[in-house]
Amino acid sequence: MTLFRHPAFARLSPKLERAKTELSELQKYSSSHYDEFLAGDWGATSAISLGVHNIYNGIEDILLSLARDVDDAVPGGATMHQDLLDQMVTEISGIRPAVLIRNSMNRSAS
To answer: Which of 65, 80, 51 is nearest to 15 (CA)?
Structure first.
């Protein structure tokens, strides 16, 4: 388990471990059920979709913890998911570096 000294980061350790475990389980399952997934098997597709959903939710929970405990600003409302990502790609001078890297492929075409 990753250990941190600062309380805000120490609380992230179990969340990081859960996301890591879920990713490992998803990788094992998807490698052994790859053909069923490609064939559109409902069970395999559902299981893999749930695994991806769980990993995303775990990562979002980590980002929300950082927003609350470090930034002291948690986005809300209808655009909170995108606002959270935008917040995490932004460095906060003297507080924290950018947590995520902005991917140029996510920008809308002009």
So the answer is: 65
Question: What whole-number distance in Å separates Cα of residue 48 and Cα of residue 23?
Answer: 10
Q: Could you give the count of Cα atoms lying within 13 Å of 64 in the half-sphere of its Cβ?
A: 12
CA distance 15 to 37: 28
Domain ranges of the chain: 8-106
Q: Is the pLDDT of residue 45 over 50?
A: yes
The pLDDT value recorded for residue 4 is: 65
Distance, CA of 99 to CA of 85 (rounded, Å) = 9
For the cut 90, the answer to whether the pLDDT of residue 38 exceeds it is yes
Q: Any residues with CB less than 8 A from the CB of 16 and at least 6 apart, and which?
A: 2, 62
Percent of the chain residues topping a pLDDT of 90: 74
Angstrom distance (rounded) from CA 69 to CA 79: 20
